[in-house]
């Protein structure tokens, strides 16, 4: 009977890379934003306010998404990361709409589910009518607090915040930085996201990810909780600031480091610095690695079918 | 004389894998839950409330248990993890009762020892008669706080909480995710447990592990501290929610990632993508690895007998 | 001239292992306890109380000491660790007095220096006369807070606390636990020390390390700050509890895991499970590793003499 | 068109190592100090005070800078680190002015940008006239709090603080300490910086980095915010204490560990301990490693030009 179940399930198998990337960005973004939304609600309604706890939850959400997506979509789980990598040809432009669709749909689903999970507490503490945009909305949207800010400041703030995050992503995915263990990058991203949320938590509420803010506003609008759009922070902080920041961060790294490395590599390829038959050695190593990975996958599947 | 002592001790040696797994799940669960229970008591009676400190202690407890059990039982230390892995044939069904026994007995022992250690503070602050179910019990059981919740919400909450935890376990133990250092997985689990405790701390008190909640209620019942069962959260949050969540999380990963990989591996096995004699290479590598591990174990034992 | 300076310095070189171990335990313990003492003072006088910050500082101090001592003394920096390892023949008994001397002298020096650094704040807030044993002493000694405790409880508490720490040390230094990167163990110890300080912070003040408590009491006694000894917690919590806990923790691991591995290794050594000429391969690998290490050391020294 | 853009950009390429080091120290220091300054402002104006959050942000900033600079400048991002390494010939003296220039210019730019980002909150809460040196200045400068301190104490405090940091840097960059994964060192530095900021946060405000304090005072002086210099803490805490501490920490490690290793290495070089043709093996390994790095860099560039 289990055999039959597995045969039924095998109909869902696909080898279409774009479809797999869509699913993985959707699920990864869903997990990231469910974690953040529930952490924000927990430290608003359930426990004393703890910005560090929220930032840590977000960092771990990114960590899970990055390891989850590693070999298929790379786990961007944020449209601005996808866009910035595309401007540097590190993600093909034709994949960008697929990634965006997965990320925004995942973000929308995460908002709905988190709202359902926190509904009783929301109703008990703040009620629903009309208050969603002010208090309740802050659970799911990215918006400034009560400190004085203007739109120029939140754009600058998010350019710095997302710029440093994107710069660090470039640093950590660059295999030439001696950060050589494949498992180090996801942990590095965990800490970097914590840090930028901590450092830029006040001006623009650490907007960072449009796939969290925009779907939450859309959902609030759909269930009739009032005006979600007129504060324009969805445009300045969550959209202009984050996209601009990601591009600035990515290109800063490209111009300060990557561009200077090109000729050196060409020299190496010409064999001027190495006497071994490098191509041959490299090919052997690649095959060995692929073999080990394949065996691992096979073994875990074989166990499944036993 | 020491020689004699070692000869005496060697009578306790066993090569029975199930017995070893029982012992390791028992000790691992004991350590995990002693750490959590004493942390909860510390931040209830001794220090200002600190949800982050409790979550960190739990994460580290899981880390210790996972490294401790790595080569024998894999260190599940939670019945829902064992069950979910069994539904995907990643843990044999015949081991499940053995794991459960170890986990629940370890959890019960941890409750008793933690109660003994915190007894004076419990008596001084809240007394024992009748108050155990409300205040004292919150030290050792998983239960909702004062915020409004219903049984549907705590089930949804625990499906999300344990679902994300179990999904992340699947991600991190899958050798194909480029997370290639064996020491990375235990650290990843440390952070993931912190995150789900932080994010889902309010609705159901981050129930997550039935081996903590159920033995604590049984112990309270045994020492006559009042009604432990009528709130039914032991059934909805700690049992239905956690088991359901673990299965949902594990299967989400299986259906979004693992299932799509099967044919690719078969292709690799047929040699279509690799020219080297891979089987031979793989065998050599495996033997080499086994040798190094064996030598290590032997060396530490040899030192012991010097 | 620099040449002359280096020649002068080279007179301090020694190849005496015990002397090197003494120095390294002394410096490592000094750093660990300076960090803890100043963190405790900072979160008593300078910043709001933050138990998590103190625990983190201690964890990082242990991390530094362990990497620092890795190849010479293994960086125990705590007499109870040295003692427990000796009972399992993982540290030679003849080294024990040398380690103890380094640890207690390092702890005493750390107390004196930390007292000097925090002197102005101590005088301003609590004065010196007579108050050292109550308020001031809590900066440098390990003592229970105001919650009700008795000597039986603090011994149980420290057996659990140090027992889990020592058990985790055994788990993490055992090369057979698949925790295969040499850099993982120090990070693991960092988190484990944080966790046991958090979980056992209230009953006995996380005594853990006699090289912190006893020298601080001796120093308070020497500078005439009143009675340091009559509360007897230095004996029950800091000495009996910690030594007993370390031995219990270490032997629990030995009896649950290590002892069962012995025959397996013998089987492997007899070649029954491996066809390769393992001894030869192993020898080659060891030499290769030694070479790489030697080259690294040589290179950094060569750079120094340029 | 993209081709043309890349050709234009390629004019900025340089192979001048000192120029590259200047840029990398500038950008690395900028990121480190933008993170710290905005975190301090966030936990002063926007969120409840959280020393742990500030320390974590600083630790992650150092982590990013160290991985970023790894292969070009090593990411010192602090003049006292550069200076102390130079005294041990681990950084050439001729590079020191270049590093200093990058660090101080990066620090100045970070102050200006952070001030712009936090300007509205600063004006709203404390106003600008005359108050910058007291309240506002504490956002960007390193200065003692209200606790009683004198100049001798802040110097001792910073010698301990920076001494332990620099000692740990020496420990972690020494390839002989069995801390063998290249990705472990940046994570280690992340935690070490957190710990010294936590432990030494009160006496001298964890001055540590003159590239943060001095440019901030210069900027406050330039925009006319009053007297920045007469408290003399810029000289005692931020300059004398930090430079002295870095030298003491670096030389403590050299004298306790490195110096004793010299002869052993010479013995190894003479072949007395190894039978293999080590030089040959080593050369092969080096070439293999260089090849893999080069291939990686090439591959990422090739993708860029596709």
From TrEMBL, chains A, B, C, D:
Coiled coil: none annotated. Pfam families: MIP (PF00230). It is found in: Membrane. GO terms for cellular component: basolateral plasma membrane. Keywords: Membrane, Transmembrane, Transmembrane helix, Transport. It is a multi-pass membrane protein. One of its GO terms (molecular function) is water channel activity. Aquaglyceroporin that may modulate the water content and osmolytes during anhydrobiosis. Belongs to the MIP/aquaporin (TC 1.A.8) family. This is Aquaporin. It comes from Tetranychus urticae. The lineage of its organism: Eukaryota, Metazoa, Ecdysozoa, Arthropoda, Chelicerata.
């Amino acid at each position: 009977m289990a055999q039959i179940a597995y045969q039924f399930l095998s109909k869902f198998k696909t080898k279409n890379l774009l479809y797999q990337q869509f699913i993985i960005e959707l699920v990864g973004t869903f997990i990231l934003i469910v974690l953040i939304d529930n952490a924000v609600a927990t430290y608003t309604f359930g426990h004393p306010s703890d910005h560090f706890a929220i930032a840590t939850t977000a960092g771990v959400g990114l960590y899970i998404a990055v390891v989850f997506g590693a070999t298929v979509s790379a786990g961007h789980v944020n449209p601005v990361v996808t866009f910035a990598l595309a401007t540097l040809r590190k993600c093909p432009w034709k994949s960008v709409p697929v990634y965006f669709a997965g990320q925004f749909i995942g973000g929308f689903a995460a908002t709905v589910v988190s709202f359902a999970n926190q509904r009783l507490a929301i109703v008990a503490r703040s009620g629903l009518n009309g208050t969603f945009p002010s208090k309740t909305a802050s659970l799911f949207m990215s918006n400034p607090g009560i400190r004085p800010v203007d739109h120029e400041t939140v754009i600058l703030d998010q350019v710095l915040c997302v710029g440093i995050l994107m710069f660090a992503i470039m640093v950590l995915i660059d295999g030439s930085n001696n950060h050589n263990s494949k498992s180090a990058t996801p942990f590095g991203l965990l800490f970097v996201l914590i840090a930028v949320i901590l450092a830029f938590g006040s001006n623009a509420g650490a907007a960072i990810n449009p796939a969290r803010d925009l779907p939450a506003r859309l959902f609030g609008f759909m269930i009739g909780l009032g005006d979600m759009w007129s504060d324009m922070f969805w445009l300045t902080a969550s959209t202009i600031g984050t996209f601009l920041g990601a591009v600035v961060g990515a290109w800063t790294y490209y111009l300060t480091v990557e561009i200077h490395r090109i000729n050196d590599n060409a020299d190496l390829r010409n064999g001027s610095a190495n006497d071994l038959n490098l191509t041959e050695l490299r090919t052997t190593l690649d095959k060995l690695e692929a073999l080990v990975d394949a065996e691992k996958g096979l073994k875990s599947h074989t166990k499944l079918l036993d």
